[in-house]
Amino acid sequence: MITGAHTILYSTNPEADRAFFRDVLKFPYVDVGHGWLIFALPPSEIAIHPSDKNNYHEFYLNV
Known about the structure:
single chain, 5 strands
């Protein structure tokens, strides 16, 4: 049975994207250190990782 999901968004400007999720969308989050935020989307979560390009993402199903 699938109980949730973990999504990773890769971004050329992760700080701005994290700020958008935090300040505009007001998603609850955990700061795991050094500005890395993991946003709660119960029963899912989303993280934004730095990348040299956009449009590359990962999606994991939790069981």
